[in-house]
Amino acid sequence: SRRYHPDFHAGATPTEQAEALAASARLNAAYRTLRDPIARIDYLVRLEEGRETKEGATDKPKAPPELLAEMFEIQEALAEAKAGGLDETTRRTLTEQRERLLARHAEEEARLIGPLSAVWDGAAPDRRPALLAAFKQALATRAYLRTVIDDLGQALGEGDEIVAHHRH
User: Fold this and answer.
1) Residue 65 lies in a domain
2) Which of 6, 46, 91, 101 matches a 20 to 30 Å C-alpha distance to 142?
């Protein structure tokens, strides 16, 4: 990374400085990806599928089918809170739902980082498509939960530093 650090190219031409800055940015992005186990899994999925996405681009996660009914109830409660204000009962309900979803989000991350990741390295090539599908489903579930958790936090007027933002 020192080779491309912009400080070492202060006397270079503007083109060389721009190239060094771009290379340094790519190195920093790669480091962040490798440092974050969830980002590594997301990158692995994209790499294995041969697709590239623009950095920072996000797709709105689709609700996994098993979450739809539960999320519909939460979205109704959120709509009521926005329309009618946040009374103590609604606040308590939304807080309980948010805590439950935070726990579920943590479980999904633990499943991604633990059992699913552990199987990947030793998996036979014919098992990898099923594992990729499991990774994608877990990433989508995690991203959808994150979105709903954020919506609940916003409705409750709370900041959320509990779970880092990783929308994929």
Assistant:
1) yes
2) 91
